[in-house]
Fold each of these.
Amino acid sequence: MPSAASHPAYPAGLRLAGRKVVVLGGGQVAQRRLPALLTAGADVLLVSPTVTASVEAMATAGEIRWERRRYRAGDLEGAWYAIVATDDAEANTAASAEAEERRVWCVRSDDADAASAWTPATGHSAGVTVAVLTTEPAERDPRRTAAVRDSLVHALDEGRVAVPRQGNGETPRVALVGGGPGDPDLITVRGRRLLAEADVVVADRLGPRDLLAELPPHVEVIDAAKIPYGRAMAQEAINEALIAHAKAGKSVVRLKGGDPFVFGRGMEEAQALAEAGIPCTVVPGISSAVSVPAAVGIPVTHRGVAHEFTVVSGHVAPDDPRSLVDWQALARLRGTLVILMGVDKLGAIAEALVRHGRDPETPVALVQEGTTAAQRRVDARLATAAETARAHDVRPPAVIVVGAVAALDA
Ligand SMILES: C[S@@+](CC[C@H](N)C(=O)[O-])C[C@H]1O[C@@H](n2cnc3c(N)ncnc32)[C@H](O)[C@@H]1O
């Protein structure tokens, strides 16, 4: 056989679903490789006297079979692929020889030159798997392949490397993307990628507005707040705009603040699109309900202090017959109350909570424009929260946190 050392590896995508893969050794190498093997659907047999806690959890969950012993000849019978990564050099050499004998492709963590296969640095984005191999085995300098992989995945995430759409590109589609609370770094990777692929973006006032400036000039950005019609009709007009652009064959992103399904009217848009026969993808976002308190160091739960948190809309006053919120019940809860859209009605809300039994001295934090450059926090007590908010000119958008967590310090 010619020396393998002078030849580069031949790349191939192994389709391992239902096929036996043997992993020898249950340490860090196994822990790192197992998730991808499981994603590929491999039938994994792990042989090792000891394993890490994560590997043990996979065995307990029935995701892999674990034989609690050392390697012995014959272990590779019926295998298509093997990963040899024990801490016993002799066992590694013997297993590697068995793999060669049985024609089983075999990766070796201790001696890449002696192995018949190398593990590429892999990553996934935009429905693409990136696998990077160099002429040297990655095992020898994993940082090199990992760096190339990271650059490629990052470029795909941000849409800097184009992935042509499937089909003829004319299938209408809309993505309802949760943009997070405002900081452009707090959108999900998927959301950011869809934004980079969009032809039309319908954006809210809240959310990561800075990202819009990065869009290429051909992308049409529609400000949802400025869509004509009266206020009551605004949602209908937004729905119509989404449908019209999707039907024109455009890739449409509806960029919303926070999470689309947390006081975001996302479901109304999803329903309107479904009625029009347009497929819609929902991309969850980081809701301001949790992230804005976190941005100023307030945990919505804390062991021994608050074991529940309730998120409530404060846009309708408690005594308004249209209110769907049971403020009396909320006043009896001992955990954290997170109020969105509550600045205007804060006086009535605080009064109702106190009247129904919440301690007037309960700490309150008002966090305006959280995670943006204009973020500010004002602290108060429940009984005087509205007064304090007025004195400090707190304006929407703000998240109001009521509860002992608002007085915690790191
Ligand atoms: C219509 S709701 C939308 C909530 C959004 N879907 C979410 O999950 O965060 C708007 C309210 O969210 C809160 N909000 C959103 N972004 C915020 C931010 N960056 N800072 C403070 N409050 C914010 C405010 O209470 C605002 O009035």
Amino acid sequence: MISLSLSEIRDLTGGEVHGTQSPETVVIDGTVTTDSRECGPGSLYVARVGETADGHDFVAAAVEAGAVAALTSRPVDGVPCVVVDDVQTAFGRVARGVVDRAPELRIVGVTGSSGKTSVKDLLAAVLSSVAETVAPVNSLNGEIGVPLTVCRVTPTTRFLVAEMGARGIGHIDYLTRIAPPQVAIVLNVGTAHIGEFGSRENIARAKSELPRAVPAEGLSILNADDDLVAAMAAGLASRVQLVGLAPQADVRAEDVHLDERGRAAYTLVCPQGTARVTLQQSGAHHVGNSLAVAAAALELGLSLDQVVAGLVAAEPASRWRMEITDRPDGVVVVNDAYNANPHSMRAALDAVAAMHVAGERWAVLGGMLELGPDSDVEHAGVGSYAASLGFDHVVAVGEGARPLADAFPGSEWVPDTDAAHDLLAPRLRAGDVVLLKSSRDSGLRWLGERLAAEGGDVAATPVAPTSREGARP
Ligand SMILES: Nc1ncnc2c1ncn2[C@@H]1O[C@H](COP(=O)(O)OP(=O)(O)OP(=O)(O)O)[C@@H](O)[C@H]1O
Ligand SMILES: [Mg+2]
């Protein structure tokens, strides 16, 4: 945290101080958080009123844990506070105050329908190999997640990676005013949350708010392989670099090969030179993700050698994204059930189709949520796609996935994850690979964990970082 006094917080937010006569002596130099359990000495506790809980009820707990002040929408006894009309807006202004007090900080914004967290993790891994870097915990990418991340910046932080998600027009624009990017990455325009946006064009408009926020001296990194993203180049103030497989891309991949686990190796071609890159993440979609990372890191002054070393060394960081577990009995579980939309479903199916499999390929697929009126068609499209890739079995889980089952000849449909487990457990054999993929709320990630822990005496579950959700696409 960059220290702020309570009087500075008052000035940043336009709020009123309560509970102290001398706000300039109350100094916040600890964690800034909306969770009272995360407070410690010097913390600022941000009291949100959420759908299920009122943060004001936890002010006492925050103080107990060490918080020295609170940002609230009403005065609370027993703690110095700044009282504001709208806590969320005020929190954004505090975060912007932090950015303005860190003149050396370089901010990279990352958006897209799929792959934001994957790119955020990879970029943070590469950048932190050369300088202090702050990046979101998990997938914190919204109006609370971005300020939470920004407030972790310290006086010695050089780079901030900000994941930015949108559920509507104007959302990313708002986030860029909190964390103004010098570098923007736009990965893709899919159909995630198309129900809320209405059309892919509207999704593209929402995502284009990120490169539009980059100043003339900054850089927008756009996916050359996605028409709607590449088209964002027109009319931008910033410089533009295209990344992808397309020959016109400024930073591109040639000679892409996938190993037996679907991990890519490719030749990185960029203005700084060429180099061979091998990735530890499974799935060809990580080629494009890593090209965007390379372009951003090179723009921020890393050498090609540093970039390549960082990419090669980076291990998969966030959970339930192509998380591979080798069971003692020889079954391989691929848990990619963090979330799903038609685009990332195909990417996951492609990745497993590329793996070398001695036994049979299973795809256990649940519903993709928030697809609006096209939902049935999109599910059916994924079923046909799995069939075209030659999967041996599809198990469709839950009502939403019925059209998917209908589109895959010989598929099996089960109502829930327990039924899916009962079907799979006795039938998986050594050499089989089983992919789990669904939207977050369809819960297949837990089925994946259960399956991963079975198949022998030795527990094969991977290490779990702490989880806090709150993502939007
Ligand atoms: N470039 C890509 N294209 C398609 N799918 C991808 C891409 N990168 C990652 N994925 C897949 O998409 C899913 C979500 O990945 P990730 O969490 O990185 O995306 P996100 O954009 O942060 O998602 P969210 O909107 O839920 O925060 C994962 O299953 C991952 O394997
Ligand atoms: Mg994310």
